[in-house]
Amino acid sequence: MPIRRGHVAPQNTFLGIIIRKFEGQNRKFVIANARVENCAIIYCNDGFCEMTGFSRPDIMQKPCTCDFLHGDLTDKEAINQVTQAVFGSEERKVEITYYRKDGK
C-alpha cells in the first residue's frame, strides 16, 4: 500500500517556494512570522548562519529585528528605525552595524 502524504498547508508551500528561490542566489536571509510576538524568526539559511556565526537553533524564534546581533557600535537610532519598519510594515533603507557571535 503506498504511503500517502497529508495535506500541506498553503503557507508551508509558500515558504518552500521563497526558500528555494533565494537559497541558490548566494543570499543571507531570515524569514519571520509576523503573526507572533516579536515577529519570531522561523527560518534562516546557511549563509546567514555562516555570516553571523550563530547556529540555526541559536537563531530560531529570536525577534526578526536581530537584536542578538547588536553590539557597542550599533546605533540606537538605526535600531529604532529597523524596529519601526518591521512593526509598522514599512520599507526603509537603514545602515546598521551588526556583530557576529564572536563579537567581530
Walk me through the topology.
Blueprint lengths: L9 H14 L6 E3 L8 E4 L1 H7 L3 H4 L16 H12 L17
Antiparallel strand pairs: 1-2
Measured distance between first and last alpha carbons: 55 Å
**Could you list the spans in which at least 5 consecutive residues all have pLDDT below 50?**
none
What is the total tally of β strands?
2
Order of helices and strands: HEEHHH
Name the strands of the widest sheet in spatial order: 1-2
Helix % is 25-40%
User: Residue-averaged pLDDT, rounded?
Assistant: 88
Number of helical segments?
4
Report the sheet with the most strands, covering strand number, pairing sense and barrel closure.
Answer: 2 strands, antiparallel
Rg calculated over all Cα atoms: 16 Å
Domain PAS: 37-104
InterPro entries: KCNH_animal-type, PAS, PAS-like_dom_sf
GO molecular function, one term: inward rectifier potassium channel activity
Keywords: Ion channel, Ion transport, Membrane, Potassium, Potassium channel, Potassium transport, Transmembrane, Transmembrane helix, Transport, Voltage-gated channel
